[in-house]
Design brief:
about 20% helix
């Protein structure tokens, strides 16, 4: 919170829990239109998904299994965290 001169107007400046101005914190800012605040990922995947039952996500799981690769659990995460290292799913994030 920022205060003005004594006896003057008081200006309120809300900051996020990470002490950034609104819209500046990558962890607190709102996701773009068409993206949920909570998305779904797997440890081996390259995309994030709005829907844990996304056909592209499940197809990737099936493909990995058919190749004898490890199947990783589908995990809910904040969009901002997933967006740092992954791209949006071409099927469920539009």
């Amino acid at each position: 919170m920022t205060k003005g001169k004594p006896g003057g107007n008081t200006q309120m400046s809300e900051r996020c829990i990470h002490d950034f101005e609104p819209g500046q914190c990558s962890l607190c800012k709102e996701p773009p239109k068409g993206i949920n605040k909570i998305v779904y990922v797997t440890a081996g995947g390259m995309s994030f998904h709005n829907d844990p039952k996304c056909r592209t996500l499940n197809s990737g799981q099936d493909d990995a299994e058919s190749k004898g690769l490890n199947i990783h659990p589908i995990t809910p995460v904040k969009w901002a965290v997933a967006n740092e290292t992954r791209r949006r799913c071409r099927n469920c994030c539009w």
